[in-house]
């Protein structure tokens, strides 16, 4: 897909399709008004006949509209003008993409970026449209024996602006959004791959390939014997039952001076979570191939910032293994020693994410980070709390939480700030070790975060529980690419904050 910004009037565009909005009640947007005038009231006539109500996300495709140089005109319903805001924009743009890609148009000019909207500018509209286009063309069918050719993927999309000049701000937004879109694609592809293909070794190979493609990235892969030497008894306890070897992947992105301390991203990379000896029930267990989506989002984000050439130092750390039952698997009641020295009583082998993350978080300190953010499909309880809309956000520092929330709002990849209060900590008290790995049913997402907080006392830290947002179930089953937009935007904002 190619994207660009184009100035000029909609009726004069020679393209496969020109796209313009109509508000509910038939009120034409500025671009639609211009088209209507050039076409001698063809559009208003159609609206008067009742064929386009302007209802949100409705579309109407027209051919051979008089005096319009494009082959097609696509009208998109925007809903009520006084209710038009971010969500309405996103609904209409997604509908527009669906309708556009159902046509044979090889290129299109979209006049939807300068619709007046409270709190969001045209640069925002442009980035969101780029992401919607990526979303709309995404397919994961290369494992089918007969994959169809994806013609939509070669469509050229132009953002038509009626007035003035395109600004540097808009150009930057477009480039960054395209990089985020590519990063999300990588994250989705890795997430959607089955566990028999996307193993810990496969993730390590992907990291090596990413570092090969970008000079600014350096990769290191630690093996189980290396982790043994580092004292990662907690991480290694999870992989004991598996035949696939665990890996600890580190990707260092150098975009700024060597002296600048890095931001570290840690992603949970359980390539299949069967639960281990605390075996999960069979229903929907296939979805536990998605238990490496945190890791995939770290890779996607690093690819995006490398593509952008962000002037910042970022380190990605990916602890990756399988969680399987076997004769050698860790058993409930086993006690292990983490890299931090704290001992852990494993009461449920299905609470494995925190066991691999705690050692990776201790390992992260070696990079003397300003900030560490971990991303994990950590708890089913988070899905119960926040559903599939918001990621759960925890932090030991409120400023960091605010910055991440803001980045999520900005990209519409939203998170919700959850409590990390001391009062929850006693749920992790163990009779036999320093800490136990489960805190009971009450506040399950919170106590998981509390567990991690015991290993992150030396730096600014945040945790994103993406169990509800990393993939969709049911008919639409598939990875979402979240929270690559939130993370990338956060990092982009950090550069601007430092300058
Ligand atoms: N990977 C799962 C969390 C998960 C479950 C994400 C369902 C999305 C959907 C995690 O390793 C896990 O199994 N967590 C347990 C923790 C419990 C044993 C304390 C859970 O949430 O049930
Ligand atoms: Mn589990
Ligand atoms: Zn898991």
UniProtKB/TrEMBL annotation:
Top-rank taxon: Bacteria
UniProt-listed CDD domains: Peptidase_M17
Active site: 280, 354
Entry note: cofactor: Binds 2 manganese ions per subunit.
Subcellular location: Cytoplasm
Gene Ontology MF terms: aminopeptidase activity
Keywords: Aminopeptidase, Cytoplasm, Hydrolase, Manganese, Metal-binding, Protease
Binding site for Mn(2+) 2: 268, 273, 291, 352
Chief location: cytoplasm
Residues that bind Mn(2+) 1: 273, 350, 352
Reactions listed under catalytic activity: Release of an N-terminal amino acid, Xaa-|-Yaa-, in which Xaa is preferably Leu, but may be other amino acids including Pro although not Arg or Lys, and Yaa may be Pro. Amino acid amides and methyl esters are also readily hydrolyzed, but rates on arylamides are exceedingly low; Release of an N-terminal amino acid, preferentially leucine, but not glutamic or aspartic acids
UniProt key word Chloroplast: no
Cofactor(s) this protein cannot do without: Mn(2+)
Enzyme class (EC, first level): hydrolase
Enzyme Commission identifier(s): 3.4.11.1, 3.4.11.10
Domain Cytosol aminopeptidase: 348-355
Pfam family, one: Peptidase_M17_N
Family: Belongs to the peptidase M17 family.
Biological function: Presumably involved in the processing and regular turnover of intracellular proteins. Catalyzes the removal of unsubstituted N-terminal amino acids from various peptides.
PANTHER family: CYTOSOL AMINOPEPTIDASE (PTHR11963:SF23), LEUCINE AMINOPEPTIDASE-RELATED (PTHR11963)
Protein's recorded name: Probable cytosol aminopeptidase
């Amino acid at each position: 897909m190619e994207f660009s910004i184009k100035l000029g009037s909609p009726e004069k565009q020679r393209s496969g399709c020109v796209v313009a909005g109509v508000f509910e009640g038939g009120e034409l947007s500025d671009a639609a008004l211009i088209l209507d005038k050039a076409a001698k009231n063809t559009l208003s006539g159609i609206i008067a006949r009742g064929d386009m109500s302007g209802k949100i996300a409705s579309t109407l495709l027209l051919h051979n509209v008089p005096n319009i140089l494009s082959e097609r005109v696509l009208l998109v319903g925007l809903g009520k003008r006084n209710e038009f805001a971010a969500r309405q924009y996103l609904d209409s743009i997604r509908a527009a993409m669906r309708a556009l890609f159902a046509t044979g148009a090889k290129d299109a000019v979209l006049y939807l970026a300068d619709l007046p909207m409270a709190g969001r500018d045209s640069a925002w509209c442009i980035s969101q449209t780029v992401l919607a286009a990526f979303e709309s063309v995404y397919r994961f069918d290369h494992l089918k024996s007969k994959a169809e050719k994806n013609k939509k993927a070669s469509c050229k999309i132009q953002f038509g602006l009626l007035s003035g000049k395109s600004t540097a701000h808009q150009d930057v937004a477009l480039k960054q959004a395209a990089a985020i879109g590519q990063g999300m694609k990588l994250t989705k592809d890795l997430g959607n791959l089955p566990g028999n293909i996307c193993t810990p070794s496969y993730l390590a190979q992907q990291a090596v390939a990413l570092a090969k493609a970008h000079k600014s990235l350096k990769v290191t892969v630690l093996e189980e014997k290396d982790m043994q030497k580092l004292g990662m008894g907690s991480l290694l306890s999870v992989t004991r039952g598996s035949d696939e070897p665990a890996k600890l992947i580190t990707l260092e992105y150098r975009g700024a001076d060597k002296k600048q301390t890095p931001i570290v991203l840690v992603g949970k990379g359980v390539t299949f979570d069967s639960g281990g000896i605390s075996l999960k029930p069979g229903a929907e267990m296939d979805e536990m191939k998605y238990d490496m989506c945190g890791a995939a989002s770290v890779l996607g984000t690093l690819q995006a910032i490398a593509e952008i050439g962000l002037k910042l130092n970022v380190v990605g750390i990916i602890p990756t293994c399988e969680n399987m039952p076997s004769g050698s698997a860790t058993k409930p009641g086993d006690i292990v020693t983490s890299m931090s020295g704290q001992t852990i009583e494993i009461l449920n082998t299905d609470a494995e994410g925190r066991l691999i993350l705690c050692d990776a978080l201790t390992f992260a300190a070696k990079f003397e980070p300003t900030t560490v953010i971990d991303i994990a499909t950590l708890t089913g309880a988070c899905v119960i709390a926040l559903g599939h809309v918001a990621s759960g956000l925890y932090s030991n520092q409120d400023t960091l939480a605010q910055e991440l929330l803001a980045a999520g709002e900005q990209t519409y990849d939203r998170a919700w700030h959850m409590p990390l209060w001391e009062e929850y900590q006693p749920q992790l008290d163990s009779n036999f070790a320093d800490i136990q790995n489960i805190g009971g049913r009450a506040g399950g997402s919170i106590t998981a975060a509390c567990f991690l907080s015991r290993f992150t006392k030396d730096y600014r830290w945040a945790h994103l529980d993406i169990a509800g947002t990393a993939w969709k179930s049911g008919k639409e089953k598939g990875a979402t690419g979240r929270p690559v937009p939130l993370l990338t935007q956060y990092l982009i904002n950090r550069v601007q904050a430092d300058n």
